[in-house]
């Protein structure tokens, strides 16, 4: 579905979730790498500026800044443990945030919105290679269905805003993002910041590095600053309502074992590396909830 935005004046871009991993990368590209064009204005919102779960506060912040374009990154996020325990909160909070943001954008006349989805929205049982046409083909993984369905519904919003009002609201689906200002929490963060933190502790304590799982799952990692540059391209050039996957190529996919080796090498870790199967990746949801 191709859409055409009507806006010739310089953009005023509002970024929700502007203080997170991707938001700060976009800030860096815009302010330090000349990513912003002359006359453009960029506003980065954080949770301190408005509670986007609240409809009135969301409307007020949009009326205050009157953006022409929006990059929507804000979401309730968390690691797998938190997701498994609070599926209802992830569903409701994210549905509210997304509905408030997209409707406020529509009401103040925003011509383009680029929202951020996640690869976890894809069906649990799928064929490979995965592409953008497959996101509604079957239920997502059971562990974080609340978050995954809420994110999927952004695509429903986007199609409906286009159908009813001709709005150019779209979404991107990044693969596993890493970079400066990542979440380095071992329990709650993703694998690269988690491993970096664990190597730091192992180096300090003279203990082994424990890598969770078999090491054989494969991931496509994308550096947050590369993703930020691609976000700008989507905002300026991508003319579709349909979401687009932002990833490295398939040949650059790496196993968790290779990712762990890269972290070990970069940090010059000389200690022992062990794999552990006693982590969440081998617990079923029921087993975890029974802990
Ligand atoms: P995903 O890409 O959304 O599945 O999330 P992650 O980045 O958290 O995890 C990817 C894989 O890395 C899983 O198979 C984990 O078992 C494995 N893994 C190995 N060590 C770690 C670690 O220290 N932290 C995390 N989060 N995952 C790890």
UniProtKB/TrEMBL annotation:
Assigned EC number: 1.1.1.271
Any matching Pfam family: Epimerase
Keywords: Isomerase, NADP, Oxidoreductase
Gene Ontology MF terms: GDP-L-fucose synthase activity; isomerase activity
Domain of life: Eukaryota
Enzyme class: oxidoreductase
The family this protein is said to belong to: Belongs to the NAD(P)-dependent epimerase/dehydratase family. Fucose synthase subfamily.
Name by which UniProt lists this protein: GDP-L-fucose synthase
Organism, as annotated: Mugilogobius chulae
């Amino acid at each position: 579905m191709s859409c055409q935005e009507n806006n010739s004046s310089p953009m005023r871009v509002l970024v929700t979730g502007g203080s997170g991993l991707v938001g700060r990368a976009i800030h860096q590209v815009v302010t330090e790498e000349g990513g912003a064009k002359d006359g453009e204005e960029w506003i980065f919102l954080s949770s301190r500026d408005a509670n986007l779960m609240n409809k009135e506060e969301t409307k007020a912040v949009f009326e205050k800044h009157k953006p022409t374009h929006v990059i929507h990154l804000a979401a309730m996020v968390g690691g797998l443990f938190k997701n498994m325990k609070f599926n209802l909160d992830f569903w409701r909070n994210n549905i509210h945030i997304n509905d408030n943001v997209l409707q406020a954008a529509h009401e103040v006349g925003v011509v383009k919105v680029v929202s951020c989805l996640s690869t976890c929205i894809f069906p649990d049982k799928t064929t490979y290679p995965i592409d953008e046409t497959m996101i509604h083909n079957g239920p997502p993984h059971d562990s974080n269905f609340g978050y995954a369905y809420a994110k999927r519904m952004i695509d429903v919003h986007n199609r409906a805003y286009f159908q009813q009002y001709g709005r150019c609201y779209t979404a991107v689906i990044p693969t596993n993002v890493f970079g400066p200002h990542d979440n380095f929490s071992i329990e709650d963060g993703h694998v690269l910041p988690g491993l970096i933190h664990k190597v730091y502790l192992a180096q300090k304590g003279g203990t082994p590095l424990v890598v969770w799982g078999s090491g054989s799952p494969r991931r496509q990692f994308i550096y947050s600053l590369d993703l930020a540059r691609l976000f700008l391209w989507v905002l300026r050039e991508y003319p579709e309502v349909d979401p687009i996957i932002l990833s490295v190529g398939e040949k650059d996919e790496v196993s968790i074992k290779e990712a762990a080796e890269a972290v070990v090498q970069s940090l010059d870790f000389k200690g022992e590396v062990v794999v552990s199967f006693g982590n969440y990746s081998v617990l079923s949801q029921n087993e975890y909830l029974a802990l």
